[in-house]
Amino acid sequence: NTSTVQAYRAGLLTFHADPAFSERAHSYYEDGLLIVADGKISAIGDWSTLHASLPPDVAVTDYRGKIISAGFIDAHIHYPQSDIIGSPAPGLLPWLEQYTFPAERKFEDPAHATNVAEFFLDELLRVGTTTALVYCTVHPQSVDAFFTASEARGLRMIAGKVLMDRNCPDFLCDTAERGVLESEALIQRWHGHERSLYAITPRFAPTSSEAQMQLTGELARRYPDTFIQTHVSENEDEVKWVKTLYPQARSYLDVYDRYGMLRPRAVFGHCIWLDEGDRRRIAETQSAAAVCPTSNLFLGSGLFDFERADAAGMLMALATDVGGGTSFSMLQTMNEAYKVARLKGSYLPALRMFYLATLGAARSLHLEGTIGSLAAGNEADFVVLDPACTPLLARRTAHTDSLEEMLFALALLGDDRTVAATYSGGRLVHRRG
Ligand code: GUN
Ligand code: ZN
To answer: Cofactors per UniProt (predicted)?
Structure first.
């Protein structure tokens, strides 16, 4: 039965390794053919060698002139902050107080949560993001609304209820016991249900009591294949605050380490003010950093150090951190990441940035073999990029000499307009225009 087989002719870009550490990290088929069956990739190769193997009744979707990549993965984003993106405040802590907490309060209402979740997911698909690691709010109903909307679209999404039981407004506080009970019920309802995966989500050390950190660490040990997401070492005032709240800890990251929260599938947002001991612990525990350049520049938090992260061998992935971040687009996130690296005296090639938004992110999430590359057996989550999507990009990409130059122009100049189509599980979930 070939009725569930689809085929796409385009330039095909996919990664097998990290371009920073491997000469042959990617494959690029200039005139390629991608074959999908039953929602999974079944073959990838050159049109000239592969098209003869297509069953005669399969129509080929012709995307010649465009580039297909694995769908982008956003390793840190807050769906409840969609409505406060681009809100002015002098730094992280005032921004949380003035905008974030009041916006999150509204998710007590499931109808509001559903409305925002639907907008948020449609926006992700418009920018080519097919998987994201998503913060909900403290309200369990915000998680139910999110996964209901993502499953209706057939998406591979990871999300969880925020845990916070101190240093927050009363209307957003849970308790150590209730937060963990609610999280456990949500794990049982959603983790592994359809394509949903659960992330245990202590907001950050300042908003959890020691009792909540203890119970959260124990919950993570009972469910070792769930994700853990939190924030660490984002802002210097925050780092100082953590020192006063947890005086016994060696560093901010060490607070999480003491409660057993460094492990595969633990993803730490920001990681700007780390020391070498912290970097070593992230690397040796196979935890990962979510690097959020638009947010870090917007809030004035600081510059991520790609060189030191690489020297330590840390897993890392790019992320938007909307609503602290100022764009949903992973292309715009690459644009800012490139400039952050330059300001730190290092250099991020475009190939590396595309890796960090696809396979590198899948590796950071320990989901390689499921998503993140155009490899046979992977879920068919991919994006169709149009190098001629705007007059400027058309003019610039008409005379690129290499794949690197082409991808660099897409990263620096591209955005939602560059995404001609997005596919999830082999289904068209967004088409531009
Ligand atoms: N630290 C704790 N909460 C948040 C949040 O919502 N956004 C960012 N950027 N940092 C945080
Ligand atoms: Zn965040």
So the answer is: Zn(2+)
How many whole angstroms from 268 Cα to the centroid of ligand 2? 9
CATH architecture of 5-70+373-431: Roll (2.30)
Q: How do the residues of the chain divide into helix, strand and coil, expressed in percent and rounded to 5? A: 40, 25, 35
* Predicted-complex ipTM score: 0.99
Residues 419 and 366: beta-carbon distance below 8 Å = no
Domain residue spans of the chain: 5-70+373-431, 72-348
Q: How does strand 419-424 pair with strand 427-431?
A: antiparallel
Reported as a single tens digit per residue, the pLDDT across 168-197 is: 999 999 999 999 999 999 999 999 999 999
Instruction: List Cα–Cα distances, 327 to 44, 97, 164, 196, 312, in angstroms.
Output: 31, 21, 26, 24, 29
Spatial separation of the C-alpha atoms in residues 342 and 111, rounded to whole Å: 44
Structural class in CATH, domain 72-348: alpha beta
Check pocket membership of 321 for ligand 1, CB cut-off 6 A.
yes
**Distance (Å) from CA 188 to ligand 2 centroid:** 25
Q: Tokens for 122? A: 């449609």
Residues 6 or more apart whose Cβ sits within 8 Å of residue 142? 80, 107, 113, 136, 161
DSSP character at residue 12? E
CB 341 within 8 A of CB 306: yes
5-70+373-431 with 72-348: one CATH topology?
no
pLDDT tens column, 139-155: 999 999 999 999 999 99
Identity of residue 268: F
Mapped to the 3 state alphabet, what secondary structure does 137-195 carry?
CCCHHHHHHHHHHHHHCCCCEEEECEECCCCCCHHHCCCHHHHHHHHHHHHHHHCCCCC
Contact criterion met (CB below 8 Å) for 228 and 220? yes
Q: Which of 416, 383, 418 is nearest to 397 (CA)?
A: 418
Which residue has its alpha carbon closest to ligand 1 atom 9? 324
Q: What is the pTM of this model?
A: 0.99
Ligand 2 center to residue 270 CA distance, Å? Answer: 8
Which amino acid is it at 351? L
CA atoms within 13 A on the CB side of 91: 9
